[in-house]
Amino acid sequence: xxxxxxxxxxxxxxxxxxxxxxxxxxxxxxxxxxxxxxxxxxxxxxxxxxxxxxxxxxxxxxxxxxxxxxxxxxxxxxxxxxxxxxxxxxxxxxxxxxxxxxxxxxxxxxxxxxxxxxxxxxxxxxxxxxxxxxxxxxxxxxxxxxxxxxxxxxxxxxxxxxxxxxxxxxxxxxxxxxxxxxxxxxxxxxxxxxxxxxxxxxxxxxxxxxxxxxxxxxxxxxxxxxxxxxxxxxxxxxxxxxxxxxxxxxxxxxxxxxxxxxxxxxxxxxxxxxxxxxxxxxxxxxxxxxxxxxxxxxxxxxxxxxxxxxxxxxxxxxxxxxxxxxxxxxxxxxxxxxxxxxxxxxxxxxxxxxxxxxxxxxxxxxxxxxxxxxxxxxxxxxxxxxxxxxxxxxxxxxxxxxxxxxxxxxxxxxxxxxxxxxxxxxxxxxxxxxxxxxxxxxxxxxxxxxxxxxxxxxxxxxxxxxxxxxxxxxxxxxxxxxxxxxxxxxxxxxxxxxxxxxxxxxxxxxxxxxxxxxxxxxxxxxxxxxxxxxxxxxxxx
Amino acid sequence: xxxxxxxxxxxxxxxxxxxxxxxxxxxxxxxxxxxxxxxxxxxxxxxxxxxxxxxxxxxxxxxxxxxxxxxxxxxxxxxxxxxxxxxxxxxxxxxxxxxxxxxxxxxxxxxxxxxxxxxxxxxxxxxxxxxxxxxxxxxxxxxxxxxxxxxxxxxxxxxxxxxxxxxxxxxxxxxxxxxxxxxxxxxxxxxxxxxxxxxxxxxxxxxxxxxxxxxxxxxxxxxxxxxxxxxxxxxxxxxxxxxxxxxxxxxxxxxxxxxxxxxxxxxxxxxxxxxxxxxxxxxxxxxxxxxxxxxxxxxxxxxxxxxxxxxxxxxxxx
Lengths: 541, 318
Hints:
The structure holds two protein chains of two kinds. Chain A is an alpha+beta fold. Helices cover 34% and strands 18% of the residues of chain A. By secondary structure, chain B is of the alpha+beta class. In chain B, a hairpin with a 6-residue loop joins strand 11 (242-257) and strand 12 (264-274). Mean pLDDT of chain B is 88; it is low at 1-18.
């Protein structure tokens, strides 16, 4: 016990002095979570090997009766690297130092996240009961987001796997991250069908690009636009994210591999329907066989001459780069993360984009390869598309996202000595539940840095039709202003907005006094930007 | 240098992707007196399957077993291997392989593919396992003086020490042995593993493939599986209309006993391995190729691994 106290105090002092740990230190305040690996200030080799063998031994297929997901070779390799460095400390019979502590914390992160992945894979497709719980929880959580105003100085977070400061132009951060992960999303893409995916409730498939090296998830449904802009805004604020891209009419070509079970569009459509009960027929644009002419334009298509392909009215493409190895959740409820201020503050960012689906499964711990066989841990906010106007319904059980009319003009307001966030979330993760006024004020100060250009650039990547994008731009500017007002933050980059915006197109009234008036170009937007019928009602199709 | 490094990583990736699993591999004894050029000419095109000799490898092997030959008696071989590939790439592995009982059996093969970050303490100094292996294999190639003999024995002891310290570490061959039979293979029994055999093999590697522009009519519709660019051999990047099916190795190996008897074992054999992505279809292609090797060239089937052949020879002499 004395040792634990010593360790805790010692480490706290070291952090305070900043002498021992680098700025991206994983384990601030998390030392108590690795005590099982220590014995009399030295390495407990039996416990260490219990974990390292569990993480690397492919013969071990279950944990507590739960099926383990396939271990990636890169993760196995990284664990062995960590293991070997720690084992040498054991063999030297040395007392542990700060470097070894860091290695142990990293190992424990991988261990817990890997186990979480196995647990969440058991419930990859949310049950009716789970959906009901999430919607009921939304109502319950509404009462919890009131924050008493306090007068402390704004703290500054240090860089960590959960957050990094953005020094560049904010809107470029998403692209910078993509470059570091070697994600190359071109304006027109060709991907090869790989397999169906049963995770989540939106229609999606797994594909691979022409060099057969990087995977991509193709998606349809109501999150195509919102996911793109939500991820870019989180990236602009310093959080790591998944990398979704929007592809308009015929900009993405999906080629069928004759060696796979699904060999054509009809089989794909029918199989997706079986998996998620959404008919993707309205997304179909055209199909054909890969021709010599297509190969002349794109020589990488040559092995696919004559194979069938399909193109779509619109779809989303999310990168699964080879450089990023996905573990399980980023452990919001473990490893002392309730005290992680960057995580607690993220609640305000969810409120800013109106994200509803904040459950743990939408967080992700990753190992990112730096190109030289080194990996760094990074926490990702995933699936940020259930945002920008969400309508939930109990009878029948359903939800719809990306509904501009449901996206309120204000995200926060000050009432007396409290700030109230107006966003609904389906799960209040532990850090969000622990968020304080000062945590949120820190995030508000980051949102203040979002100027008109960055907001416009992030939004434009979503490729919403012009009137919808304009309405969203005005609403986001207004929500940003409401946050700064609520937290008494001076706005150095004010963005003009008009709550009564009216837009005509070809003499037709599309937006009247800040409200979308019609189901805009339904053929080009099969999910509908207007109808409140979500995936469980086939988007009203 | 850059090319060498990237080639090395590609190779590591390739080895890693094949490092944990099974290997459908068959072995043959070549007919007596057949020359290298004659063998190459005859196996160049067999019933629709073409061959291309792409590399010459030099393999050094250091086999481990217990004093009572736990590995040998239970049908396994456990070895450190150093691969020198076409004079440009060096890679190390720690491999466990099972013996075949029937010639159509599938061999289990697992490998710890990167030994570079494993070290053992020699006095006050940490030394990489790969450095020790380099010295051991250099001794194999060198003129063996008594001074070198002392270093050699010391290095063998360091290998033995490393094994005794690492049996319960996350190292694939140890994990696999304990998974297969923890009553036979456990911390106590594996503690006694030590180097028992050292050898060198000169290996000619060839791709066997279907060239869609030059094959039999029945193979023209064989699906051409496309592999990840990092796993795809250069030949198939350059020839996208050729589909990789099998891989052959023509080996000349020479082994020395480390058990004190001074036995020398020479082995000359031909191996064929299934590389086709549809493994069932690949087995059919392996059968097809084998029929030609036996009927057209006069090869004979061999079941025993090089290790088994060598230890059997040594034990028979005892």
